[in-house]
Amino acid sequence: xxxxxxxxxxxxxxxxxxxxxxxxxxxxxxxxxxxxxxxxxxxxxxxxxxxxxxxxxxxxxxxxxxxxxxxxxxxxxxxxxxxxxxxxxxxxxxxxxxxxxxxxxxxxxxxxxxxxxxxxxxxxxxxxxxxxxxxxxxxxxxxxxxxxxxxxxxxxxxxxxxxxxxxxxxxxxxxxxxxxxxxxxxxxxxxxxxxxxxxxxxxxxxxxxxxxxxxxxxxxxxxxxxxxxxxxxxxxxxxxxxxxxxxxxxxxxxxxxxxxxxxxxxxxxxxxxxxxxxxxxxxxxxxxxxxxxxxxxxxxxxxxxxxxxxxxxxxxxxxxxxxxxxxxxxxxxxxxxxxxxxxxxxxxxxxxxxxxxxxxxx
Amino acid sequence: xxxxxxxxxxxxxxxxxxxxxxxxxxxxxxxxxxxxxxxxxxxxxxxxxxxxxxxxxxxxxxxxxxxxxxxxxxxxxxxxxxxxxxxxxxxxxxxxxxxxxxxxxxxxxxxxxxxxxxxxxxxxxx
Lengths: 362, 126
Known about the structure:
- The complex is a heterodimer.
- By secondary structure, chain A is an alpha+beta fold.
- Chain A has two domains: 4-51 and 143-236, Gyrase A, domain 2 (2-Layer Sandwich); 53-138 and 251-279, Alpha-Beta Plaits (2-Layer Sandwich), CATH 3.30.70.
- Helix content of chain A is 22%, strand content 32%.
- Chain A contains eight helices and 20 strands.
- In chain A, the strands form four sheets. Chain A has a six-stranded mixed β-sheet, sandwiched between helices.
- Chain B has helices at 29-35, 82-85, 89-92, 116-125; strands at 8-9, 14-19, 22-27, 38-42, 49-50, 55-61, 65-69, 74-79, 100-104.
- In chain B, strand 6 and strand 7 (65-69) form a beta hairpin.
- Chain B is globular.
- The A-B interface holds A 18, 29-30, 33-35, 38, 228, 231-232, 294-296, 298, 317-318, 320, 347 and B 36-37, 39-40, 42, 55, 58, 60-65, 84.
């Protein structure tokens, strides 16, 4: 088996996780069932192994200049200790990846790419590094990461660390938190739509953190969670996923991510193409959809109007929290109107559906 | 993984129970376990003519949709409408809840299916 193992692999097996090859990583889809784990994060607290995520360390005099050129967002306005969501775009304005950038200061940043894109991002970025006074290192193999998510996540994590977590605001982080000889980076982030934290440290350190969180978590009925509910949670919370709502041929404007593209900064990769698209208006758009029968919309299903293809489903589920058959769709801009009636082709049969806002939880 | 004695099985993890000329078709424990929480079953229609390897139903969990293939040629004579109201029955007791009853048009096709012992070996190899 060629799939990589995270530092917590043995623990997933021991805990009865349903471990599968997930984009090249052996990770649990679930432990006790996707629905139960999903509910635990919405209502209580869940713990995820996200050690498969990548990490690039960017250090040097021109770190800010480098990142502002290769990313769509602007890091000059971010405070030290702040985290910024950004795209890496190609010259055509398509999305190579979406990622978080942790700003220590103007000369030091940490980039966190999607696991499946880490190598692709690295090979893309390394082409530009030589033009800047920066050190750029892929440190992914030296970092373990867990996400503790849900309304009670702070209570649990607070029992672990001797640091007042109230001091970490949403999308901010603190580094150098000492824990049993391990150095932790803690951020108030996550991809579930709930309050929560992510903890980064060494592979050995993350094993200690995992074991201790499980012990502390007993009192709170902390639930171990697999990747299955991570996807349903992020979907309900209208957070896009690379490979679904984003791709090399989908632009941030189509994906509804214009907020992470700063046209008023200096030149950046993809700027010219995105400016043109902005002036002309995007031709497609990601929007929500709800089925009007009992069939469940799924990634890849075609959307039609009067027998003609107008789009495709990017993600679809029977939403565990809302119990509604919901989807994100990428469709022609003229059809992306709330209330619009469309057909979804499910196993060669036509199902009626309606275009709705993608903010399902609101 | 539970393998019910006395049933026939396919490589796609359907089970078949034969009574006279009628085949009851369901999904094996392995299939429901792999799918996880089943939230929807799309049933065939009565009087549908089916051929072996045709998709006759879809079983959907929160995360995925899986096709159920007919192991035999025949005509759908009855569907299990209980699954419409409570798809999770397939998780709870996969061998108690059939999906469709098919009237066999060629009983010799049954010879190509695995018995429980053969299916148990098949699961071990998979």
